[in-house]
Amino acid sequence: MENLNCNVIIKETPDVFSWNESIFLFHYKQKREIKMADMCVHMNLISVVLEGTKEILDHGSKMIVPAGSGFFMKKGSYLVSDKVEDPDKGFECIIIFFSDEWLQSQVDSILGKNAKSDFENCPQNDRDMALLEEDGLLSIFMTQLQSCMATKNDTNRLQSLLPLKIKELLQILISAPNGHLFEAQLRSLDTHLNPDLVKLMQSHYKENISLEQYAFLANYSLSTFKRKFTQTFKMNPGKWIMQRRLEEAYELLKSEMNVTEVAYEVGFETPAHFISSFKQKYRDTPKQLQQKF
């Protein structure tokens, strides 16, 4: 069985346009058919089929993408087939890879700061892929994009222009008749549970470090850290840290540790702060709770 690793394909394909490892754009051509190949997708991608037919299987569904239509795929593992309709033309598509980080940096300009009400009211789509149906505007755009990509004499201008064209493509796809479903998937990339952030906080919630230092460890700006934290844990960082420390303290109080030892163990700087915070949450002081065990 054939293996298609998108990271390897990008590195081995000539004439790939890229920006800071966040966007990769290239014209993919294949003369022979590919049947049920393992495809490892390391970045989110949008592709528009120009010649032939694409078939994709994820863990729960199958999608057929004819020429003129496109598809969106989240990072993950898929089985794909490239079907050739005309041997002289083979299979051909334009592929755009983009990172979560790039989308997050552009989310307001692409999706709009005030456009969330419609998104919140539309049905959520947790599928890993989506069909982008053939559309007149999409067809015109792809012709323009291919012309831009064919102009290789001025790389600097292309590197400035093509990211704008990709944002234009996203706007075209969102404004299509079923574009609200695609928009929901883009928004889900910006609001999904961040496993690295969960691991970071579960490992370090007892440390006496600032939010700025947590943000640094997470490789986020402070504002992005707060936003991603609230999306992941459904509460602000200060409240979550306090709650997690007190829950840990509740369990430790069942042991032979005294109140002062528990206070320092879970990250409080003084026993007095621990006692007042504990009583506010559990109504009993730590000592009163220990006497009940």
The computed structural class is alpha+beta
Extended strand count: 11
**Overall residue-averaged pLDDT value:** 84
- Could you estimate the helical fraction of the residues in percent? 40-55%
Q: Treating each run of at least 4 consecutive H or I residues as one helix, how many helices?
A: 13
Shape: elongated
Give the CA-CA distance, first to last residue.
61 Å
Strand content: 15-25%
Describe the structure.
The protein contains 13 helices and 11 strands. The chain is of the alpha+beta class and 293 residues long. The strands form 2 sheets. The protein has a 6-stranded antiparallel sheet. Strands 1-4-9-6-7 form a 5-stranded mixed sheet. A hairpin with a 4-residue loop joins strand 6 (53-57) and strand 7 (62-65). Helix 2 (100-111) crosses helix 6 and helix 4 runs antiparallel to helix 5. The longest helix is centred in the middle third of the chain and has 21 residues, at 155-175. It starts with a strand and ends with a helix. 18% of the residues are buried. Mean pLDDT is 84; it is low at 113-125.
Quick synopsis:
By secondary structure, this protein is α+β, with helices and mostly antiparallel strands. The chain has helices at 6-12, 100-111, 116-121, 136-150, 155-175, 179-191, 195-204, 211-217, 222-233, 237-252, 259-265, 271-282, 286-292, and strands spanning 3-5, 17-19, 23-30, 34-41, 44-51, 53-57, 62-65, 70-73, 76-83, 91-98, 129-132.
